[in-house]
Amino acid sequence: MGDPQRPVTGYPAAGYPQPHSTATAYPYSAPPPPYYNTNAPHPYHAPPYPSPRATFIRRFLAAMIAFFIIIGTIIFIVWLVLRPRLPYFSVASASLSSFNVSSSSLSGEWDISFDVRNPNKKMSISYDRIESFIAYKSATLSQTTIAPFYQGTKNETTVRATFAAIGAYVDVPQLNALNAERARGSVSFNVKVIARVNFKSGVWKARSRVLGAVCDSIALGLPSNASKGSLVGGPRECRVGL
To answer: Are 197 and 146 within 8 A, CB to CB?
Structure first.
């Protein structure tokens, strides 16, 4: 008989569990890990160089914006200091002679005086290329030119305009309205003055502007049987604008 103390071969000994392997078998060995050279220099990417054209356009626009801001500031400061004001126009006197009305036209001679006042304390005004028109309602009857003149500060000037119309066409509805006014004893005409003006103070001079003065409803006493008349109701103020 065998030795009872000798273990039996061919069977696992009690108390030793069979090992279980979770590794996956490969027919080849695993590849080596990648190699990183931490001492190698990193590549340098230079920033894109700006286009000279784009740079020029940006600088040009910035310069123009700054220029207009500076000019606008200077003009605003000058305006605050000088406080430019428009002149005053009024019809001081007016007369009509040789007035005659036919079936579709009229003739006459007008003599009108304007009072022009410069209200500015620090600015003078010069007037050039002055034209004046006289009309009945929407029908222009005559136009004329007025001599250029200059006004110092706080100055008042009287200028004169003479008009002559010979056979000026007026349509039938307007002629009927004119005859109706004559039957009431007066006829109202409209006068307009247009001039190129310059405001100046010392060495500062504003750019030339076009000024207009509109004098509406200038009533002249003109009965039905009369060929002449004069201003009724006293001087008339005119609307002035640029």
So the answer is: no
Report the pLDDT value the prediction gives residue 158, as an integer from 0 to 100.
97
Return the H-helix or E-strand segment holding 108: strand 105-117
CB-based burial label for 55 (10 Å; 0-12, 13-18, 19+):
exposed
Residue given tokens 């600015």 in the structure block:
123
Asked if residues 187 and 220 have their Cβ atoms less than 8 Å apart, the reply is yes
Mark the ranges of the chain whose per-residue pLDDT is less than 50: 1, 23
Verdict on whether the full-model pTM lies above 0.85: no
Find the helix or strand (DSSP H, E) in which 81 lies: helix 52-82
Residue pointed to by tokens 């020029």: 56
Instruction: Give the other-Cβ count within 10 Å of 99's Cβ.
Output: 19
pLDDT of residue 141: 96
Q: What is the pLDDT of residue 20?
A: 52
The helices-and-strands tally (H runs, E runs) of the chain is 2, 12
What integer pLDDT is reported at residue 29 of this predicted model? 60
* Residue-level pLDDT at 77: 76
Does residue 125 contact residue 197 with C-beta atoms inside 8 Å?
A: yes
Contact (CB, 8 A) for 91 and 235: yes
Nearest to 169 by CA among 193, 132, 138: 138
What CA–CA distance (Å, rounded) separates 169 from 178? 13
